[in-house]
Write a structure and sequence with these properties.
By secondary structure, the chain is α+β, with helices and mostly antiparallel strands. The protein is built from eight helices and 13 strands.
Length: 221
């Protein structure tokens, strides 16, 4: 199995006419996108699917889609469901399928539908498989039974942001750090377990930090 998946950058995975097709998000992704949406002045709708999953609901183009450039505006920070597309996974049964919405999949369907092993899928959908692995790890390992704390803040001072992140790392188990590629100075820190809000606020209440938010992310049960 050698031919690698090639994304044609068509609009089919960013334009939907049915709610059930739009991306499913993990809880922390929903929190992150909702803050990012606020900062970008976008009105976003999310629907809870239960057990820590949300759907970003839209009819037509995704609010993050840049129609004139035919590209996702949040390419680096888009949700894992978008990063793994056209791979699809059932969270309850772990059944792996491919989406026939994707033209590359339709063109290559005869080839890829013949008894592919997991190794073949990883070879053909190399980058997408990494995102799929992250989703499965998150659902089955990372988020099982322990709460997390999501911290967001904005500052124009990079050194100060690093200093704040280091302070969190000294006291807590930081499992994810992200700096937005579309909103200058927007940082996101995900911490294992719950943090003392007063303690977190003492690190975040500074003139140079223009905005912050601390949110609890419940475990997937
Ligand atoms: S987040 Fe980006 S990749 Fe995902 S549906 Fe929206 S525009 Fe498309
Ligand atoms: S539908 Fe397939 S080819 Fe089109 S943008 Fe999405 S992944 Fe790429």
């Amino acid at each position: 199995m050698s031919s690698r998946f090639t994304c044609y950058r068509c609009v089919h995975c960013c334009f939907f006419s049915e709610e059930k097709e739009s991306p499913v998000l993990l809880w922390h992704e929903m929190l992150y996108l909702s803050r990012l949406g606020e900062l970008l002045g976008l009105k976003l709708d999310f629907k809870s699917l239960g057990q820590g999953f949300y759907r970003l609901v839209f009819n037509g183009f995704c609010p993050f889609y840049d129609v004139s450039n035919r590209a996702c505006r949040i390419q680096r920070e888009k949700p894992l469901a978008c990063k793994m597309f056209p791979l699809l996974v059932s969270i309850s049964s772990l059944e792996l399928t491919v989406s026939l919405i994707c033209p590359w999949v339709r063109e290559n369907f005869t080839k890829i539908s013949k008894g592919m092993t997991l190794e073949d899928i990883e070879e053909v959908f190399h980058e997408e498989f990494k995102a799929l692995r992250e989703v499965v790890e998150w659902v089955y390992v990372v988020s099982k039974n322990t709460s997390k704390t999501a911290i967001y803040f904005t500052t124009y001072y990079k050194d100060l942001a690093q200093d704040v992140i280091n302070k969190f790392k000294e006291k807590y188990e930081v499992i994810k750090i992200a700096e937005s590629s579309v909103v200058d100075g927007f940082y996101y820190v995900l911490i294992e377990g719950e943090v003392d809000v007063n303690d977190a606020e003492s690190m975040l209440k500074r003139d140079e930090i223009t905005w912050y938010k601390i949110e609890k992310v419940p475990p997937i049960t």
